[in-house]
Each structure stands twice: as C-alpha cells, then as structure tokens.
Amino acid sequence: MTLAQRLLERAEEIQSEVIDWRRYLHQHPELSFEESKTAYYIEETLCAMGHMEVSRPTPTSVMARLIGSRPGKVLAIRADIDALPIEEDTGLPYSSGNPGVMHACGHDGHTATVLGVAKVMAEHQAELEGEIRFIFQHAEELPPGGAEEMIAAGVMTDVDTVIGAHLQSPVEVGKVGVVAGPMLASPDTFYITINGKGGHAAEPHRVIDSIAIGAQVVNNLQHIVSRHVNPMDPLVVSVTKFIGGHTHNVIPGSVELCGTVRCMDLELRDEVPKRMKQIIEGITSAHGATFEFRYEYGYRPLINHESVTKTIAETIQELYGEEALYTIKPSMAADDFSAYLNSAPGTYFNIGAGRKEKGIIYPHHHPKFTIDEEALLIGMKVFISSALKLLAK
Ligand code: NI
Question: What is the fold of 186-296?
C-alpha cells in the first residue's frame, strides 16, 4: 500500500475519536478571544499525539509543527476554534453546556477535523517530507479577528502553501466545493453622523432637518452600486442603522447611521469610502448641515490561488468522483482566512455537511444549526491527500 492509502485508511480508523473530539468541543463552546479551555484541550490533544512542537502563538490559539524526516515544502492547515453568542436549541445530547454560547458555525467540526489530520500525519512523521503547520486560530467570528494576530506572531513564516476549509450545512454531505479567485468579500463598516439644527416640527424653516438630509444620504449611497461601479464588479453598500429623534413634534439636531461595505477587489475597496465621503459632503453642505464619517476596514477579500485550488479539486475527484466536486458560488460573506492568503498562496474550500433526510437543514448561526458528522472524515481525507501533494510540489 502507498503512504497515501495507509494514511486514508488510518483516517477511517480514527473517525469515531474525531467525532468524540467534536462533541466535546461542541459541549464546551467559548466566545472569540475567550477560547482558553478550548485552546487547552487542543494543546493537550496535540501533545498526546507526539512528534510535534506545540506552542501558543496568542493566549487562546494553538500551533503545532510537524517536521518530516526529509526536507520539503512547508504547508499550513488552519482551523478556526471559536463559538458564537447564541442559545443552542438543537436538543442534541451533547448540546452546549455554556448558556448563551454555541458552536453554531461548525468551528468545532473544523477543529476536530484538523486534529484528526494532525494525528494521522504525526503517526507517519518518519515517512513525511517537509513540514505541516497546524494552526488552531481563535476569534474568526469577531473583528479584528484572530488571523492577523497569529500572522504577527509568526505562524506563517516560511510557509509555502496554506489551506483551510469551512463546513457547509446548506450543502449536502458528500459534496466538496472549491473556487479559484474571489470567494468571499471584505466586510468593512462605516459610521455617519449628520449634524443639523433641531427645533419645533411646526417650524421646519427654522431647523436643519437631519432626518430629511439623512434619508437623502441613504438614497444617494445606493447610487455608488447602481451608477458609479461597473455592474460586473460585486459591491454591497448597506445602511443597517438609522437613529434619530424622540417624538412626533421635534425635529432632532442629529442622526446616526452605520452600515457595511463589501467587495472583492482591493482597488474598488479603496475607491468606495472616497465616493461615500463625496456624497455625504455634497448633500450635507447643500442643506447647511455638517457630518462626521468614519470608515473601518475589516477582513481582506478572500481570493483563492489558482494552482492550489486545482490541486484540491483534483484530490476531491480522485477520492470521491467527479460528482462530489462542485464550484462554490462566491458570496459577500467574509472570513479572516483571507489574511493567510495574503501571506502565502493557498485556497479555502467548502465541505458539505447538511443532510435533509436527517433534518440537518438549518443555516449557519442558527440556534438549531448542526452538521452531519460524516463530513469530518470527508474533510480529513481531502486534507490528508492534498497535503501529501502540496508537500511534494
Ligand atoms: Ni464560520
């Protein structure tokens, strides 16, 4: 048997152990930047495997370096480990024991899958070339996110390729998806205050109406997407909050707005806040109001590397046949895996984890969200086979 075949067979043998890890993590979820017990559990589990240098790049993250017996490439595999502020309502026997906190995005599954890959790989350390770096990252769910902190701590130093995956409950288990190029957007946020002059609602000529001006700002911001930008370039500008006023007969002196801007192109990303400022400036000055505008950059757009994506796609086809592979439809959601892709070429792929017939139909971040645990073994196998190819390249 080839090394690859033996590794895949071993992955099958430890499937129930990986499911146990996932269930433990599911029962003990922790919020972003607070993953102390999670990190400890991961560290202990990795240390018990042997053959790896285990470290803590930040207080709640873990890294394990598995150095093969022969020189070769350095491959990083990333799993995110944090949970969400959601009250679980799945009724599962291993439901969250931490009230108000839930693994409702599948990061428990990501962690268990990559722990399983680490175990199988560590057992075969003597036969491996190069280095595999297992990155268990905290705080994917809460900007500014954990990825940049980990990179600043040096986890990507000398890394040649980086891969990661997300479980997907809207996709049936057995399917695995990839896409080359843009996959997820940059989620930037903005805050606008419009300062007019408040007064009696019966005397509008004596006030500078921040509500009427704010409404025009909201309308005109829509023109950025519909009239300023090439329709072939994806862009979202959404005002998600508009606060002002207290009662029916007083025009308030100011209103506050905030929202999100999402796109997949770095040039466009620089352009949008400039356009926004022009529009806000023009409208407010035309009506005698003033404004404050703050724009905060979030995660980078996630753009997958062509050749690494191809390697993963080939692996999926070899393991599960052509029908298992699907092409991910890019979306305006975000993931700070994009930070690693800014340090090294790589790809982020999706592992189907839904199953209608078992009632596993709820979307991510839903109180009834769950996964089909079959997906964990599928993910392990794709990681293991791809890793062998990427280490040899
Ligand atoms: Ni997630």
Answer: Alpha-Beta Plaits (3.30.70)
**Looking at the chain, which runs of residues are DSSP E strands?**
52-55, 62-67, 70-80, 129-137, 161-172, 176-178, 181-184, 186-195, 199-200, 235-243, 250-251, 254-263, 290-296, 302-304, 325-327, 346-354
Q: What is the pTM of this model?
A: 0.94
- pLDDT, one tens digit per residue, over 335-358 is 999 999 999 999 999 999 999 999
Where in the chain do CATH 3.40.630.10 domains reside? 3-182+301-392
pLDDT digits (tens, 9 = 90+) for 304-340: 999 999 999 999 999 999 999 999 999 999 999 999 9
Give, to the nearest 10 degrees, the angle between helix 266-286 and helix 210-223: 150
Start-end of CATH 3.30.70.360 domains in the chain: 186-296
Q: Which fold has domain 3-182+301-392?
A: Aminopeptidase (3.40.630)
Our answer to whether residue 160 is catalytic in this structure is: no
Q: Give the Cα separation of 46 and 176 in Å (integer).
A: 26
Q: For this structure, is 335 an active site residue?
A: no
The catalytically annotated residue of 80, 131, 140, 336 is 140
CA–centroid distance, residue 311 to ligand 1 (Å): 23
